[in-house]
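Appendix B. Raw example, untouched.
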Amino acid sequence: MIVEIIKVLFVVGGGIIAALFVLAAWRVALADRDLYAQNQRHIKSYRDVLKGHLQVRSYHGGVCDNGVAAGLAYDRTAKRFVEQGRISDDALLDILN
């Protein structure tokens, strides 16, 4: 009896995971490719993103880039403030909507 319940739970859980995977793949397939390319130019390599070494500049030629969430960090070795940024959540949500 317990074994059958566990089997049913595994089948239902696997079905839910498969449905969520299909939904995520569908959203990525329908993503706005132009916005994706615009945000992709902020990164140098995917390895930097995975390691967390992403340095995104919020100004390009004196113009503020609204797709970047930026702040200041203090570099103790250089003893100065440096800009530290990431692609904003709004920019990522715009791609998927």
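End of appendix B.
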